[in-house]
Structures are given as structure tokens and as C-alpha cells.
Write a structure and sequence with these properties.
The complex is a heterodimer of chains A (about 120) and B (about 110). By secondary structure, chain A is mainly beta. Chain A contains no helices and eleven strands. In chain A, strands 2, 4, 5, 6, 9, 10 and 11 form a seven-stranded mixed β-sheet that branches. Chain A has a four-stranded antiparallel β-sheet with strand order 1-3-8-7, with no helix packed on it. In chain A, strand 4 (about 30-35) and strand 5 (about 45-50) form a beta hairpin. Chain B is an all-beta fold and about 110 residues long. In chain B, about 0% of the residues lie in helices and about 55% in strands. Chain B is built from no helices and eleven strands. In chain B, the strands form two sheets. In chain B, strands 2, 4, 5, 9, 10 and 11 form a six-stranded mixed β-sheet that branches. Classes of the chains: A mainly beta (about 120), B mainly beta (about 110).
């Protein structure tokens, strides 16, 4: 069974530039998450989709971050303009469940962003 | 919002020693999950606990969920170098979907 696919694996940009990350979840998983993991910390939820609808984006910095999940499968996360503090690994995850009983989250390898 | 606290932040052990990490929530959890992240890797699911006082074992790993469902622990017996990594607990975000992760316990093993 194919896992969660993410690209690019690494990206280096200068502050105020833009960047986009792509995620393809496990087939059949309706719930898709984007997490931000700063070095040495736990993953922080940015946004959660159920099919192509946003369930929770309360922790997404909407002035610079945006995400979409067209057709309820692939998803993209965009940052524009990037700030130094956005340097982190952006993890995409998917699950069969949702709500308070998500079940196991399957994570992709992550996209490591460095903002100079 | 709901927070999940983990201690210790770092744990150095000699290979063969035991290791325990603790997770505490400010609110009662319907369930709790544990993940392991190897250096440079991504979080990988270990287990989910649902019942009050539940204890589950996976080989050398023992997971417990507190009676009040506000705390949990992971105990590793006789650590091996393959156990190196960061162990995270995660609980449902109170009033919202998704999981809140603790900051993790970094396990460093000295041969």
C-alpha cells in the first residue's frame, strides 16, 4: 500500500518569497492534515480537511498561509510571503477516521523549509 | 485550548537500561495515541489507548492510560540502539478535530 506522498522534500527560499507544498494522501483516506514541526518540537496542526472541506483551520496563519484540497484528494499548502520563523518541516498526514477518534495518522516524509 | 504535556524533554540512558516517558493532559481525553519519530524521519504510529486504566504491551514497550484518562506513560524495558528517537503522545483537540501533540521526549542511548 502506497503511503502519504509529499513534495518537495527540501526547499530553501529567501524571506518574503513564496513556496508551495504538495501532498497526496493514502487512497481512501477522507481526512487530511497539514502539521508544522519546528525543530525540537512536536507537530502543530495547521489545517484539517474532511474530503474537500475545511474542518479546522484555527491555527493557520491566514495572512500568509493558505491550503486547498480540490476534488478531495491531493492538497497544496502555500506560504506567501515567507518569514524566517516559517522555517520548519511541513508534515502532511491522512487518516480513515475523523473527529475525536481519528484513528492512526499516517504521515508523509515531510517537506523541510528553510527561510533565509 | 487542550494541552498535552510530556516529561522529560530529554532522557539519556545506557543501552540496556529502562526508559519511561510521561504524558499529562489538562482535560480528560477520550483516547490517547503514541508516536515514534526517528532522527530525520516522520512520526510513526505506535498505539492508541481508549479505556480508563488500559495497559497494552508491544514486545519491550508498555503503554498505560490513567484511570482518570488524563495521563499516560510509555515504558521501554532494556533499551536498544534501535529505540533512539523522539516519542510523542497525542490526544484529541478538545472541542475540535485532529490531534494535539506533546513536545516529545528525546531518547538518547549511549552504547
Amino acid at each position: 500500500e502506497a503511503g502519504v506522498a509529499q513534495s518537495p522534500r527540501y526547499k530553501i527560499i529567501e524571506k518574503r518569497q513564496s513556496v508551495a507544498f504538495w501532498c497526496n494522501p493514502i487512497s481512501g483516506h477522507a481526512t487530511l492534515y497539514w502539521y508544522q514541526q519546528i525543530l525540537g518540537q512536536g507537530p502543530k496542526l495547521l489545517i484539517q480537511f474532511q474530503n474537500n472541506g475545511v474542518v479546522d483551520d484555527s491555527q493557520l496563519p491566514k495572512d500568509r498561509f493558505s491550503a486547498e484540497r480540490l476534488k478531495g484528494v491531493d492538497s497544496t499548502l502555500k506560504i506567501q510571503p515567507a518569514k524566517l520563523e516559517d522555517s520548519a518541516v511541513y508534515l502532511c498526514a491522512s487518516s480513515l477516521g475523523s473527529g475525536t477518534n481519528t484513528g492512526e495518522l499516517f504521515f508523509g516524509e515531510g517537506s523541510r523549509l528553510t527561510v533565509l | 485550548g487542550q494541552q498535552v504535556m510530556q516529561i522529560p524533554q530529554y532522557q539519556h540512558v545506557q543501552e540496556g537500561e529502562d526508559f519511561t516517558t510521561y504524558c499529562n493532559s489538562s482535560t480528560t481525553l477520550s483516547n490517547i495515541q503514541w508516536y515514534k519519530q526517528r532522527p530525520g524521519g516522520h512520526p510513526v504510529f505506535l498505539i492508541q489507548l481508549v479505556k480508563s486504566g488500559e495497559v497494552k504491551k508491544q514486545k519491550r514497550l508498555t503503554f498505560q492510560f490513567g484511570e482518570a484518562k488524563k495521563n499516560s506513560s510509555l515504558h521501554i524495558t532494556a533499551t536498544q540502539t534501535t529505540d533512539v528517537g523522539t516519542y510523542f503522545c497525542a490526544g484529541p483537540r478538545g472541542g475540535a478535530d485532529g490531534l494535539t501533540f506533546g513536545k516529545g521526549t528525546h531518547l538518547i542511548i549511549q552504547p
